[in-house]
Amino acid sequence: MPDNRHITLFHNPRSRSRGVLVLLEELGASYDLQIVDLEKGEQLAPAYLAINPMGKIPAIRHGDSVVTEQGAIYQYLAELYPEAGLSPAPGDADRGAYLRWLAFYGSAFEPAIIDRAMKREAPPRSMSPYADCDTVLQVIDAQLAKGDYLLGQRCSAADVLWGGALGWMVDFGLIDPPAGTRAYIARMADRPAFARAEATNAKA
């Protein structure tokens, strides 16, 4: 019987799509990879701009649907494979916090980290949607001090997004998190799906 949940991931191993690949492995999803060569500028070619006019990856295709933007991709995939248990369903007490952490990544963490990487001052607090980088990181660290995962003892797709991203920021020297956050990063990196995704990236 054909799998109507098959996903095409537009991917480059040295990009944000690495985390989506980990999520696909966590979900046990049926997928294939379309490698986008960033060095050749393929993300700006008309064929790819027809998929994502922003010229950014990741993007996914599921049947006739195309999804871009990381938070939307993680939510879409986790809901497409509910049997994996990585997406609290509507009505679940954890649903609100789950959606909050998916949204917080793109709306607060990424712009704050980019400010730090570029050595830019944050806008005045009254005009900034994310306050400042230190505040963002303090919020994350405080949440992770409460349990093993963002939802306490329950791992979700939000952790797949955050675990990888925080690990990469440590590798880039952009953050120096406390022990609890470092333990969280290690916990997510120790999951079998992470190793499978890294093995796939090594061949890409």
TrEMBL record:
It comes from the Bacteria. CDD domains: GST_C_8 (cd03207), GST_N_GTT1_like (cd03046). GO terms for molecular function: transferase activity. Residues 4-85 form the GST N-terminal domain. Pfam families: GST_N (PF02798). Keywords: Transferase. InterPro entries: Glutathione-S-Trfase_C_sf, Glutathione_S-Trfase, Glutathione_S-Trfase_N, Thioredoxin-like_sf. This is Glutathione S-transferase.
